[in-house]
From TrEMBL:
Enzyme class label: transferase
Molecular function via GO: 3'-5' exonuclease activity; DNA binding; DNA-directed DNA polymerase activity
Protein name per UniProt: DNA polymerase III subunit delta'
Species this protein is from: Serratia ficaria
UniProt keyword terms in alphabetical order: DNA replication, DNA-directed DNA polymerase, Nucleotidyltransferase, Transferase
EC id: 2.7.7.7
Pfam family, one: DNA_pol3_delta2
Residue stretches making up the DNA polymerase III delta subunit C-terminal domain: 208-322
Example GO BP: DNA-templated DNA replication
Alphabetized InterPro entries for the sequence: DNA_pol3_clamp-load_cplx_C, DNA_pol_HolB, DNA_pol_III_delta_C, DNA_Rep/Repair_Clamp_Loader, HolB_lid-gammaproteobact, P-loop_NTPase
Length: 335
């Protein structure tokens, strides 16, 4: 598994707590996607399971380390939904709990890694609670999450909360420049669109995905003068509609920043002419209303089973057309 330079400090802090006996048996690791929380959890797991630790590092040579490197350590359990499913049910939780109450096969620690605790069904989360409260000796739970508010309060209360923040923007840009040489403005935009998470930014900068975003921007730029927002339907009506709506909402929010003279804080640094175009055609109140409508639409697309995606998007786009038709040009904000 890859390691990332911005993980060094949090790794040392966490390992230091466990090395001095202050580490919690249940760690709730809150991080934005693309910040490397899986790598941090794996590194911590290796240290916890290592039988001959070398200070802050696992030795890499003992039998436990070799098993971890081979990916088949019997006391390291990774919990994830079955392929094709979006939730983790109670049965895998029961199975791993049963294993935890037997002796560690390598005589050391037992570690459970669950990358997204939000995927637990309510029954699965409840099944985990008692073990989290009274775990077997030398057993450690590492729970990752994107949105802690979606977890049961009783589950959160049994864990030590740890927030893995995105690295400093300059550090993120330096790493991106090494991984994906290219336009610095594009790099800055990709990083800001993902709340500073460098790995997610690197994925966005891959040629096919970056072209998809550019196609959405071009379609929006062409649609605005004609008030033909329905022409955006082909670029929005896609399996990855949630990400495309994120791109769209980011442009609309940047237009509000432009109206307030805060262009330097815009996310889409590579699309300033388009952002200015949006800012000049819609008032701040209209932009806020449209953003809220799109966020509601995105939530429905993600949460309602069997929703008609094309129909929902069409309804939103037609409503936007009506708003544009009724709006006059917007005067620039004077500071």
């Amino acid at each position: 598994m890859n390691w990332y330079p911005w993980l060094n400090a949090p790794y040392r802090q966490l390992v230091g707590q466990y090395a001095t006996g202050r580490g919690h048996h249940a760690l709730l690791l809150h991080a934005a996607a693309g910040n490397g929380d899986d790598a941090l959890a794996y590194g911590l797991s290796r240290w916890l399971i290592c039988q001959r630790r070398n200070g802050e590092k696992s030795c890499g040579e003992c039998h436990s380390c070799r098993l971890m490197l081979a990916g088949n350590h019997p006391d390291y359990h990774v919990l994830a939904p079955e392929k094709g499913k979006s939730s983790l049910g109670i049965e895998p939780i029961r199975q791993v709990i049963e294993k935890l109450y037997s002796h560690a096969q390598q005589g050391g620690a037992k570690v459970i890694w669950l990358a997204q605790a939000e995927q637990l069904t309510e029954a699965a989360a409840n099944a985990l609670l008692k073990t989290l409260e009274e775990p077997p000796e030398k057993t450690y739970f590492l729970l990752g999450c994107r949105e802690p508010s979606r977890l049961l309060a009783t589950l959160r209360s049994r864990c030590l909360y740890w927030h893995l923040a995105s690295p400093d923007e300059q550090l993120g840009l330096q790493w991106l420049n090494r991984q994906t040489p290219g336009n610095p403005v594009d790099h800055l935009t990709a990083l800001r669109l993902h709340d500073g998470a460098p790995i997610a930014a690197e994925r966005l900068l891959q040629p096919e995905r970056w072209q998809q975003r550019n196609a959405l921007c071009a379609a929006l730029s062409a649609a605005l003068p004609q008030h033909d927002m329905l022409s955006l339907l082909p670029v929005l009506n896609h399996e990855e509609v949630a990400e495309r709506l994120h791109w769209l909402c980011a442009l609309l929010v940047d237009a509000m920043k432009w109206q307030q003279g805060a262009q330097g804080y815009a996310l889409n640094q590579d699309q300033q002419p388009l952002v200015h175009q949006l800012a000049s055609r819609l008032s701040s109140a209209s932009l806020q209303q449209i953003v809220q409508q799109w966020l509601t639409c995105r939530h429905r697309l993600l949460s309602v089973v069997g929703v008609n995606r094309e129909l929902l998007l069409t309804e939103q786009l037609l409503g936007w057309e009506q708003m544009l038709g009724a709006a006059g040009p917007v005067q620039p904000h004077s500071l």
